[in-house]
Specification:
Strand order of the largest sheet: 2-3-4-7-6
Strand content: 25-35%
Distance between the termini: 49 Å
Radius of gyration: 18 Å
Shape: globular
Order of helices and strands: HEHHEEEHEEE
Number of strands: 7
Oligomer: single chain
Helix content: 10-25%
Structural class: alpha/beta
């Protein structure tokens, strides 16, 4: 009886690990378009990459665009219609969600650095 219960618990924990995988799966990004149906910042509270380069450190921002590629363990290159930005997305933030380079994503997080050294520490990844 104890062996059966232990085996059932082991299987339950091993399958829950698969459900949390998620992440960026690569692929070919779509061509960049200036009028790709983005919403105006006045009604969505979203920012653009060229705007956040001048924001204060630790400002909370939301960006919409495409993750182009994985550059390191938790680092990615992100693009919107105004440029590209290095973003840090911890494994836990993916929460089982998977995206390809052609998927539009919404990233929310904290600004780190200024100017060309600006990065985004992502706290939330979702579909727009």
């Amino acid at each position: 009886m104890k062996k059966t219960l232990a085996l059932a618990a082991l299987l339950a924990f091993s399958f829950s690990g698969f459900a949390q995988e998620g992440g960026f799966k690569g692929g070919e990004p779509p061509p960049q378009q200036k009028d790709a149906g983005s919403k105006g910042t006045e009604d969505t509270g979203e920012s653009k990459i060229d705007q956040i380069r001048d924001m204060r450190k630790n400002a909370w921002v939301t960006l919409e665009g495409h993750i182009l590629k994985k550059t390191a363990e938790e680092s990615y290159t992100f693009r919107d219609e105004t440029g590209t930005l290095d973003v840090n997305i911890p494994h836990a933030v993916w929460d089982g969600k998977e995206f390809n380079a052609d998927d539009m994503v919404r990233l929310s997080g904290y600004v780190k650095g200024t100017g060309e050294q600006t990065k985004l520490n992502v706290e939330r990844v979702e579909k727009p």
